[in-house]
Amino acid sequence: MTTHKAHCLILPYPAQGHINPMLQFSKRLQSKGVKITIAATKSFLKNMQELSTPVSIEAISDGYDDGGIYQAESFAAYITRFKEVGSDTLSQLIETLTTPGCPVSCIVYDPFLPWAVQVAKKFGLASAAFFTQSCTVDNIYYHVHKGVLKLPPTDVDEEISIPGLVTIESSDVPTFEINPESARILEMLVNQFSNLDKVDWVLINSFYELEKEVIDWMARIYPIKTIGPTIPSMYLDKRLPNDKEYGLSVFKPMTDACLNWLNHQPVSSVIYVSFGSLAKLEPEQMEELAWGLRNSNKNFLWVVRSNEESKLPKNYLEELKLASENKGLVVSWCPQLQVLEHKSIGCFLTHCGWNSTLEAISLGVPMIVMPQWSDQPTNAKLVKDIWEMGVRAKQDEKGIVRREVIEECIKIVMEEEKGKLIKENAKKWKELAKNAVEEGGSSDRNIEEFVSKLVTIS
Ligand code: UDX
């Protein structure tokens, strides 16, 4: 029987971009001897396409067991009910987990669910907030929480200068539509800082070398530990024999179709295109993107989720299949890490969700950034101007990135001198990401320290 050093209960927010990093972090803790139980909502577990993990998963309820957030009348209603029902069902779960040998000593929670701290206190457990976005973005929400910054900024031409952060334009801060639903989402993002004065650790899925200044500044206020990138080690090191990839995904990846197609493409020739698990593009934007990719005359692998497929131009998929050069493949979901590490990939056209951004950094893939909303414009700014790992596809005054702009960006990254520089920087960041999580690296040391403290309190 395995003896564990400590037992952590992990509480992710039930969305793909949040589950992924927390699952990978859990695996890392488990490899260091910590027992893990993930508390996932019944509705999320119900929709799971890929459910194979080496860690135990237990169900809690968000109060909407059939459809989760899609069943709720509004985002506000969802968050309120999740707090009520989630607190109760999480407490019940902790009670059942205290009986056998290794009781829970710490809750690692997504700060979208700040009520978890009260549950931890009720049971005398330690707590760690796990931020799934960049430290820069967290810093911006912190200043909104403190009332120092207003989102959206009042002046569109304003330069924003807040402690710990490079000066940015108002167009680089997180963006939200102006409607009550988006206002509630922003409120939740800002509320990540409520209860944060009561936690024992603040874990951030980033690495020190990537965001030094802002991490140092935030560390004066909170007990910050960067523990990322939470990429499976096999993608950062040599693939170890018997080391398996584990997933928790609501989408079914078309793995064979993607890899078979990529295996037939020349080295560094393919543009990989994805907008993550949530983004909904305007039909006009979809059309421009579709023709921009085709007109670039380059090979491309494009993830179009099935709920977005109807926005593709008429006959686009059929024509793509018929085209003799076999230049493009559209799939509904792919194994993104396997794709990004494939030798045929030349660049990543991305919405700059934080996971995708970190994954591209960790695998050294140059980016064309096309942010949509929330944290993505800030991530895009960092990719282009601070890490110099990509170019930005600029929108016109209607908010649409035109096909010519997409073609131009592809040309810059794939063919021009500037692209060479971007590729060199991408290599540099890949190395730094790998060093951070390797034994003795900045993130590894933080995880070791976290585990030793867990052991002393268990
Ligand atoms: C959301 C927000 O939109 C994002 O801005 C925030 O930083 C995190 O939460 P999402 O839009 O889904 O996430 O984007 P991202 O953070 O990039 O996460 C997507 C995840 O899905 C990545 O881990 C990526 O590897 C994975 N993915 C995506 C696949 O496995 N296959 C795909 O085909 C597409």
Automatic annotation (TrEMBL):
Gene Ontology molecular functions: quercetin 3-O-glucosyltransferase activity; quercetin 7-O-glucosyltransferase activity
Keywords, ordered alphabetically: Glycosyltransferase, Transferase
UniProt KW Transcription keyword: no
EC number of the protein: 2.4.1.-
Classification via SUPFAM superfamilies: UDP-Glycosyltransferase/glycogen phosphorylase
Residue ranges annotated for the Glycosyltransferase N-terminal domain, each copy included: 9-48
Database matches in InterPro entries: Glyco_transf_N, UDP_glucos_trans, UDP_glycos_trans_CS
Family: Belongs to the UDP-glycosyltransferase family.
Protein name, entry field: Glycosyltransferase
Organism placement in taxonomy: Eukaryota, Viridiplantae, Streptophyta, Embryophyta, Tracheophyta
Gene behind the chain: UGT74F1
